[in-house]
What does this fold into?
Amino acid sequence: MAEARASHSDALYLWRDGAVLVDTTFSADPTPIELMSAFKSVVALGIGRLLEQGKLASLDTPVHTLYPEWNQGRKKAITIRHLLNHTSGLQNVGNAGVEIYPAPNAIQLALAAELTADPGAEFSYNNKAVNLLAGIIERASHLRMDLFFQDQFFGPLGIEEYQWYFDRSGSPHAMAGLRLKAADLAKFGILVLDRGMWKGQRLIGENFLAEMTRASQPYYPLVGLLWWIEPDTQQVTLKTEAIRARPRGSVFHRLAPLAGKNFPTRPAARAAASAIGAQSDDSAFVREAGPRWVDSVFSWHVGAPAAFHANGYLGQYLVVVPEARLVAVRQIRNGDRYDPKTDGFEDFPARIARMARAGRIK
It folds into this structure.
């Protein structure tokens, strides 16, 4: 609660085994809050619903079975699983404001994208590819994605207040754009916790949920299918040999003071690098080694999953801790007062998992 206030949170909600422990709003605005990329995890549940209904055959269904224009070249190999685990290989610009928000039709933008890697060959967080899931849900269900969710989830879960973002073609994005209140977002976490059951009705199959919440590919061990994994232990270490291999004068030699040091999380390693002048978006590092340079010089070892979570821009979180039967939500509104140095609450999932393991959430 103290950290939620200090980080200017707008809402904090904790539910444990049927009891609401915390339901607090920190501002006078009662309206639903934009989920940002935490919505991606909700979209994954939509795919699970289609599988349960038999409207999709499997996660490995090729996208071209729904969009025949992809039945050629390398795109022929792209499956729904590739879109869910960020390995489609579609060309992508990390900042959605550059390509996606200006585009009149986000689904067509994704369909027209070239490939920068073979499908399944590498992990690359990809808003553009995720937006194609809105089209897949529509073609498989014969309902526009927002109407599908309203019919298949919002009705059964009793969600009455929500707002959607639509592009100029009239389609919702799948990467972000849904506004919900914290208590309603938590219902999706409870649905996952209860293995796809809601008040005696099966909405999502257990097999899909098991796949959704475990490591989905070898390149990045903390991501499932549009859900993120919070391990019980983590150790991040600078790859000393990767720094030594850089040529004389490389900006990467700035990281030498971190050699031999271990960090408990990736945010902690990034913070240490930033403190010595190596921010993750530093243009000099990006020019030399690309936007994912951090992954090229830090290695990390992870333990068993302790929780899994949805997260989004500014610090939107939905955390599920199965062992403690705990669901936690933190939300914050976008606005001029937001300070990325203090308001992201980056350790919220880890803190919730740690407190749950210690029996401190009752």
The mean pLDDT is 93. The two ends are 14 Å apart (CA to CA).
